[in-house]
Design a protein that fits this description.
alpha+beta, OB fold (Dihydrolipoamide Acetyltransferase, E2P), three-stranded antiparallel beta sheet, 11 strands, globular
Length: about 220
């Protein structure tokens, strides 16, 4: 009986140690992902920050792999500057399945709405309640507190093929800024390549083009 008791006690210790080990192994992954978003590194393209550790969709959204099959989604700084003073966000609810290229993100100003497509396919796990309560975070901190949602992505490899290759990101962003300059040359003074930062609300500098139409041109909607 004593032998059985010793064996049972030993087994309990093994189970507890295994659980604690797994927790220690997974915890740093989530913490690291949050730190990377909060303090992104990377170069600037024509005054816009483009963190190197993120993946980008051609519709100006970004992704960060938090852990296996889970991606965090947000909008890049160029998109945030075009959206400007957003008053309300319309995001898919947790449990909703989003398809890559489907219009799922809505941004409202008064009675106008701009839309953005999902950069990835999967099930929405969480939406950022903080940015819903304070949409100004989208412009103030697009790569940090202004993130939008996390998505469970069963097939990372297939959907990842439709994202921009890392070596093309800077050229793609530079092209977007040049197209914007072409619409309103005066904007070149608001977004300077010598370290200047983009204006808070770029769309306000192009009054001749409706806000939903301007954003749709760059967001592929």
């Amino acid at each position: 009986m004593a032998v059985i008791l010793v064996l049972c006690t030993f087994l309990v210790f093994i189970v507890i140690d295994t659980i604690l080990s797994r927790r220690k192994a997974t915890l740093p992954v989530a913490i690291q992902a949050e730190q990377e978003v909060a303090a992104p590194s990377g170069s600037f393209v024509e005054g816009f920050q483009v963190p190197e550790q993120l993946r980008y969709h051609a519709g100006h959204s970004w992704l960060l792999r938090e852990r296996k099959n889970v991606m965090r989604v947000g909008v890049d700084e160029f998109a945030a500057a075009l959206l400007g003073r957003v008053e309300k966000l319309d995001l898919p609810k947790p449990g909703h399945w989003v398809r890559q290229g489907q219009r799922v993100l809505g941004f409202l100003r008064g009675d106008q709405k701009a839309e953005m497509v999902s950069p990835i396919e999967g099930e929405v796990v969480e939406i950022n309640a903080e940015v819903l309560n304070d949409p100004s975070l989208l412009r103030k901190d697009p790569y940090g507190k202004g993130w939008l949602m996390t998505v469970f992505v069963p097939d990372e490899e297939s959907t990842g093929r439709n994202l921009l290759p890392a070596n093309l990101v800077q050229g793609w962003m530079r092209n977007a800024v040049e197209r914007l300059y072409g619409m309103q040359p005066e904007l070149a003074g608001a977004v300077a390549a010598d370290g200047g930062r983009p204006a808070e609300d770029l769309s306000a500098a192009i009054p001749a083009k409706p806000w939903p139409e301007l954003t749709a041109e760059f967001f592929l909607t």
